[in-house]
Design brief:
This protein is mainly beta and 136 residues long. It has a single domain (19-135), classed as Sandwich (Immunoglobulin-like). It has one helix spanning 2-17; strands spanning 32-35, 39-46, 56-64, 73-80, 85-86, 92-97, 100-106, 112-122, 125-135. The strands form 2 sheets. A 5-stranded antiparallel sheet has the order 1-2-3-7-6, with no helix packed on it. It has a 4-stranded antiparallel sheet with strand order 5-4-8-9, with no helix packed on it. The chain binds copper (II) ion. Copper (II) ion binds at residues 80, 83, 85, 110, 112.
């Protein structure tokens, strides 16, 4: 009985530390999840398979680990760290509420390793969340 109570307390404590981003529609196109410092971010591209030289969209959802600090704004960019260049286009990010965002206008113009940079601004602070993808 005492053990059960302890287990319940532990579960509640860990639930406060983690959160699950609400990004619907993942049956066919599974989202990638990144556990960052203040946020957990889930994202997927449309189309799922990125084609070199063709525009694509990134859908993402964020949740705040502390359960409170919702982002003020989100910016999405990408670059090739080894080549020291970015994309040739700027992205436009729109919010659809519930911590969901859509970034449009991305294009990877060459093969190699690209890195997404998600900038999450909240209460005057910015958290940079990165994720790598290799295009062949
Ligand atoms: Cu390059």
């Amino acid at each position: 009985m005492k053990d059960t109570f302890f287990f319940i307390m532990l579960s509640m404590a860990s639930a406060a530390w983690a959160c699950t981003p609400d990004l619907p529609g993942g049956a066919a196109n599974k989202a990638q999840t990144i556990d960052a410092k203040k946020y957990v971010l889930a994202y997927r591209t449309q189309p799922e398979k990125i084609v070199i030289g063709q525009h694509f969209v990134v859908d993402l959802a964020l949740c705040a680990r502390d359960g409170a600090t919702a982002p003020d704004s989100v910016r999405v960019d990408a670059h090739m760290p080894e080549h020291r260049h970015g994309m040739n286009y700027k992205t436009t990010v729109t919010s659809s509420g519930k911590g969901r965002y859509r970034a449009e206008g991305l294009m990877f113009h060459m093969p190699g390793r690209w890195e997404y940079v998600f900038e999450v601004r909240a209460a005057g602070a910015t958290e940079r969340i990165t994720a790598s993808v290799v295009l062949q």
